[in-house]
Amino acid sequence: MKGVVIAYVVLFSAVIINSVWAWDSWESSDSSWGGASPYISATTGCSGFLCPNNGWCISALWKCDGDNDCGDYSDEQSCPTVAPLQIEISLIGKPTSQSSTHASQGTSDHAVDGNTNGYYFSDSCTHTAFNNVGNPWWAVDMQQDECVDKVVLYNRADCCEERLEGAIVRVGSNPDYGQNPECESRVSMDQISSASPGDRIEIECNLSGQYISVELPRWDLLTLCEVKATSCSGNDKRMSEETRLLNLLKRVLEIDSE
């Protein structure tokens, strides 16, 4: 075990080299830590974070790392908000379909080809047919159930952006796409107007299912130049790799002091 501890200390020495460490043990009747503790005695001043209620000094890197290192959560207060990690669901190359197709430039697979180019004649956008304009739709089969946090639509950039107004995005496992639940809002003209031509339009969903579909509830033409989706699992607070390694080091040091 000593050899393992030494290896970990060497591995993380670059992280803790600027901190002043003086290890001590402590006893507290109301503490869940037991006898030995990973806390640092602040006998010569604290160069990290000083726990206000018990006087312990911890590394500044331990503040806001998700652990209650001070015992009173003071090191986890006034922490910056962690932005959700956006994990993209891969749609590229997944099976697609649409209500009709206008020429070879507008096939349904163009919305999941990885190309967000908003110019229709670049062969990267879908387009439903002029002779079949009643309630046009497009869909992708993710081939397994996914929890979809957001669906991102890339609109056409060279003309006709307003066609996407009122578009309904659905997520569910019913192959009759129109029976699946709607996402939280429909595409608004404000979203279209505020986005640059061909820019992304985000729709909050937080729904699970195998299929994502987009439909226009009227007589019109539907064109999508790319569709992307992010996973609900990306909304969990994710600690940085540095924090994970620090927590591992803390645990090793706890084991050695027992």
Q: What does this entry look like structurally?
A:
- With 258 residues, the chain is α+β, with helices and mostly antiparallel strands.
- The chain has helices at residues 2-16, 189-194, 241-257, and strands at 23-25, 36-41, 49-50, 56-58, 88-89, 96-98, 137-154, 168-172, 200-215, 226-231.
- The strands form 2 sheets. Strands 5, 6, 7, 8, 9 and 10 form a 6-stranded antiparallel beta sheet that branches. It has a 4-stranded antiparallel beta sheet with strand order 1-2-4-3.
Could you write a compact summary of the structure shown?
The chain is an alpha+beta fold. The chain is 15% helix and 25% strand.
Secondary-structure map with pairings?
Blueprint: H1 2-16, E1 23-25, E2 36-41, E3 49-50, E4 56-58, E5 88-89, E6 96-98, E7 137-154, E8 168-172, H2 189-194, E9 200-215, E10 226-231, H3 241-257
Antiparallel strand pairs: 1-2, 2-4, 3-4, 5-10, 6-7, 7-9, 7-10, 8-9
Helix pairs in contact: 1-3
